Every structure is written in C-alpha cells, then in structure tokens.
C-alpha cells in the first residue's frame, strides 16, 4: 500500500485525476487517459505520469548537458546570453503560463518543454547541419530525432531496458517535432502549445542577446512592425529609460505582446468551438497559434533575425569553424573506433561506427567538444 504522509492511497491516479478534473478544460490531456508506457509500471503515490516524465527528463544527463550547449552565441562571446538550458527554462515557463490560462495539462507541457531541445548537439544548428552532412546517406541527423533517441535508447535508468520509459503522450509530442506532418495525428493541444512557446521565446531572447552583444541595435530594428509596436507601447508607459532599461522593457513587451494575443485569440476560438473532449479538439481544424496580423509581424521579425543575427559575419565565422571541426572529429572517430569509451561498445555494434560517431559528438557540450578536439589534434 502506498501512502502520502501516512494516508493510505491505493489508487494514486484518483488523487491526480480529482485535481485535474477541477483544474483542466475538457480539451486538455488528462493523466488518467494516458496510453501508458512501453514497459508498464505501477503509478506513483503522489506524482502523476507526466510529472514523472518531467522528472526523468530533468534528471537525465543529456538534460544537464544543455547548460554547456550554445543557443545562438558561443561562450567566447560572454556570459550574458542564453544557453540551450536557459532557453529551455524560458520555453517551459512561457508554455506553462499559457497552458494554465487555457486550462491545459501543465505537467505534460512542462515535460514536453524540458525535452524539446534535449537532442541538440554542440554548436547549435551549425553542429546539427555538419553532423547531418556526415551521415546524410544513412538517414541523416536532426536534433529533434536525436532527442527521441536519447529518451528511448541512450539514457540508462532501468536494469532491463534502455531509455526513460516515458509515456506515450510525451514520446508522441517529441515525434510530432520530428515529423511536423505526422499523418492522421493532430498533435495534442499541449504539444502545439510548446511549439508556439518555443518560437515566441527565441525571437524575444535572440533579439535581446543580439542587441546586448552589439550585433544589431534597437534603431536598426525599429522599422519592423512588431518592434515598432512594442517600442511605442514602452515609450507610452515609461519615461526616460536609459539604453539598458529600454532594451529590457522592449524584450519584456516582445514576449508579452505575442503571448497575450495568442491567449486571447485561442481563448475566444476555444469558446466558439466548445470542445467537450481531447478527441473533438484534435478532429477539428483548430490550432494553437497567433492571430493572422501578429503572425505576420512575427514572421517579419524572424526573417530579420535570420538575415541580420543568425547570418551575422561574426556568427558565420564561428559556424564555419565549428562545422569544419565537427567533420574532422567525425572522421577521426570513424577511423579510430577504439576511441569511444568502453561503455558505448554495445551501441557501437548496434548502430555502426558512423552513427555512433555522430551520436557521441552530438552528446558533447561545446566545452567538452573543444577539449576533445584539442587533445585529438594538438
Ligand atoms: Mg527550442
């Protein structure tokens, strides 16, 4: 018999379900309706299945390594800007805020958000593109797919089988990131929400980091419709802000504006549709997203960030150097498979040397990659 503070709790999911009945909307994913885990487990006394998913992700080594992986800017550029881990936390909090307001399942949202970038290799998308080229003819590499591989095959937590044994819903959420057009499978609203929160988050923080690092200025961006609108709001509500406070107020507004418009748009749509179940919501054409005018503004900002920040000459240089080194390291591991730590031997035999080299490099933090590279080629 399981107990909470000495109180008998024979059916732990009842307790979780009562809470969810009170708090969640009819279109939210309920813990009691989870399709469960590939390897069945008894329920926990006081944590629901999605809370346990979240905790398994949080305590995984791949998750901890996100602190040493760059988002857009490398560690050489200072310590103000976001890492892959702080980005992940921002996504999780923004997604939970929206999810709570819409009555969605916050536990599932949090698990999905903490997992969403767990498969990122060192050096962000530059590292990802290089690794993809290394094994293009053998299925390629994507951080979303690798995230799924990590939680299903690479993390070791149980004696009898590999992976974290996450719920079907958490795994499907990540699978929807791998294949955005998964046939006949509209993603759960919780999954759609994390996706929407991800882009809102990085647009705001990448703009913040780029301005702080001096790659672009607020003046450079003020012709963009969303920036102009946010600046207008900031100037109306605050007086005499210095440069730093203006940037902070602008970034605050760059999150607040899309989040508020997404919320009011989705809330009124959800009222209109009046879904009585998850199935009804998934069978409809409703999607969690911004109203058309703000979606346009967001697109314009994203294009600007792509052209002027992600393709900034100083980043292109970092990108090219990283890609060249990733490929060099890949070749070296392929030619010397004895360099893999002993514990990877079974995986090496299973996936072959090329995939093993890609996975091993993808697991590295930026710093560990540097160290390994230097010891290999010095
Ligand atoms: Mg992300």
Descriptive overview:
- By secondary structure, the protein is mostly helical.
- The protein has a domain at 14-199: Hypothetical protein af1432 (Orthogonal Bundle).
- It has 17 helices and two strands.
- The chain has helices spanning 12-23, 49-58, 61-64, 84-102, 106-115, 124-134, 143-154, 168-178, 189-212, 218-221, 225-237, 243-273, 278-283, 292-310, 313-335, 345-362, 366-377; strands spanning 3-4, 7-8.
- The model has no long low-confidence stretch (mean pLDDT 93).
- Residues 87, 91, 116-117, 198 line the site of magnesium ion (MG).
Summed up, what is this model?
The protein is mainly alpha-helical and 378 residues long. It has helices at residues 12-23, 49-58, 61-64, 84-102, 106-115, 124-134, 143-154, 168-178, 189-212, 218-221, 225-237, 243-273, 278-283, 292-310, 313-335, 345-362, 366-377; strands at 3-4, 7-8. It binds magnesium ion.
